[in-house]
Design brief:
The structure is a single chain. The chain contains 21 helices and no strands. The chain is mostly helical. Helix 5 (53-77) runs parallel beside helix 7 (129-156) and helix 15 runs antiparallel to helix 19 (420-438). The longest helix has 34 residues, at 90-123.
């Protein structure tokens, strides 16, 4: 009986984002091998192990949560494919879904750690088997996180599950927790506590000294706790019932609009006569219409929280902190998730919007550009208010706007082609890579080009600024052209 459920789940997942998410390991492998070759002179595997910290300490929990939320989001979007009113065993159905999630996660870990191990073994580095051990530990810790994320997505939705994954990651890397004496009392610290000695690093990616207590610690306690977390997560993923009612019980009262029909003096109805010129669409009208449709309460809340964060940082911390918050977090995450938040609101009515106004694609790009300009201007103003140089902020602003808009249009292209989950994966990986390279000594090498969101900070010479400006303009123009083309073609299909 369970075999039929598993076969059905495999058929559902065919061609979905869950099938392609393991390919995210490929850029991680390339960066691990490439960066270790340039930045590490160690002859053993320790020169490679540390670069896996980009995955472990930066994107571990959010990426695992993304794997788990993909099928749950699919079921919510398709209303479970009609199985809600059929005689199916929900536990079998959810168990098969969780097994497919674990299979996809296993493929990701095999590509990430397995290919890295193969390259290191071919290089003849000593202790190359540590990569395989770290891969097994990482997969063991991911089981529990995936189960809890799947249950959260089923009950509370995609955004809540991914938000919980981000909070889980932040808690797990706090030094007072993961490297403290009471680490065993915090479940988010269990997988990382198991992985740190295997990767020979601290929670901040600094290599462990030969006599560090973490190296002398037995992996058994952390492994047992990770196994317990895996059991709890599996039970949560299998036994948590799906939500059949909306989260919000409050519904806006909708009263049907009544428009009085024009009548003559005799009381007979006559059609209204509207001049053709008055019915002609305008670009400004399209921008206004998209603004009303896209400015959702969630987006307003995000913009308000961004403003409050900038005010708080500018009032307490020096300009370097405001700049770091803006370029390392706010710019890549905000620009990458902006199309993710906006497009689901526009997609159902997009074919009608395009029929009513052929300016809709251009209007959407202009609205996204305006939003990026407002946020970047607010960040530059906050830097100046915190004591920074107005000249430096003014020179940084055009490049920041260009980088933010380029990220936005690329994310929009991914949303239109592959869906919002793929765009979220792109945002997570891009942000972590940017933080790792843009805020490190590697930013002084040619590798600064890979940290795209930090170009406004790292383009600190006339040559670098010119290269960054030209490349940003090229990416923004190409992304805008691709987005406009997809909005006129792919976005009009009923299946999208």
């Amino acid at each position: 009986m369970f075999k039929r459920y598993l076969s059905a789940e495999l058929l559902r997942s065919r061609g979905s984002a869950l099938q392609w998410l393991p390919l995210l390991a490929i850029p991680l492998v390339v960066m691990t091998v490439l960066f270790s070759s340039f930045a590490s002179f160690a002859k053993d595997a320790t020169g490679v192990l540390g670069w896996q910290s980009m995955f472990i300490t930066g994107m571990y929990a959010p990426l695992v949560a993304l794997f788990a939320t993909v099928p749950e989001h699919r079921e919510a979007r398709t209303r479970s494919g009609g199985t809600l009113w059929r005689r199916v065993n929900p536990h079998y159905e959810q168990a098969s879904r969780f097994l497919v999630i674990l299979t996809s996660l296993a493929a990701f870990h095999l590509l990430n750690f397995g290919v890295s191990w193969a390259v290191v073994a071919l290089q003849g580095r000593a202790n190359h088997q540590l990569l395989l051990v770290a891969g097994v530990y990482s997969f063991l810790g991911a089981i529990g996180i995936a189960g809890l994320a799947a249950a959260s997505a089923r009950r509370c939705g995609l955004a809540a599950a991914l938000g919980a994954g981000i909070v889980w990651q932040v808690v797990s890397v706090l030094p007072s927790i993961v490297e403290g004496n009471a680490w065993w009392a915090f479940p988010p610290a269990w997988p990382l506590r198991l992985l740190l000695p295997a990767l020979r690093i601290h929670q901040n990616s600094v290599p462990l000294d030969p006599g560090d207590p973490l190296l002398q610690e037995s992996p058994v306690p952390a492994a047992v706790l990770c196994l317990l977390l895996a059991v709890v997560g599996a039970c949560a993923a299998i036994l948590t019932p799906r939500r059949t009612r909306p989260l919000s019980l409050l519904r806006r009262a909708e009263t049907p609009a009544t428009t009085a029909a024009p009548t003559t003096a005799a009381g007979t109805w006559t059609p209204a006569v509207i001049p053709r010129a008055a019915a002609r669409s305008r670009l400004l009208g399209a921008v206004r219409g998209l603004h009303r449709a896209a400015l959702s309460p969630a987006l307003i809340s995000c913009l308000a929280l961004t403003a409050l964060a900038l005010v708080f940082l500018s009032a307490i911390y020096p300009p370097s902190y405001v700049e770091g918050f803006f370029l390392f977090l706010l710019l890549p995450v905000g620009a990458g998730t902006l199309p993710v938040m906006v497009w689901p609101l526009l997609a159902p009515s997009w074919p009608l919007s395009y029929i009513e106004s052929r300016y809709s694609p251009i209007a959407l790009l202009l609205w996204l550009f305006g939003t990026v300009v407002i946020v970047c201007s607010a960040a530059s103003f906050a830097m100046v208010c915190s004591g920074g140089s107005a000249t430096a902020a003014a020179a940084q602003l055009p490049l920041a706007v260009g980088v933010g808009f380029a990220i936005t249009v690329v994310s929009l292209v991914i949303v239109l082609l592959l869906g919002i989950l793929s765009a979220l994966a792109f945002t997570i990986v891009g942000t972590i890579v940017s933080v790792t390279l843009g805020g490190d000594v590697l930013a002084k090498t040619f590798l600064w080009l890979l940290a795209f969101p930090t170009w406004p900070m790292n383009a600190d010479s006339p040559g670098r600024y010119t290269v960054a400006a030209l490349l940003t303009l090229l990416i923004a123009v190409a992304g805008s052209w691709a987005s406009a083309r997809l909005l006129r073609t792919t976005a009009l299909r009923p299946t999208r």
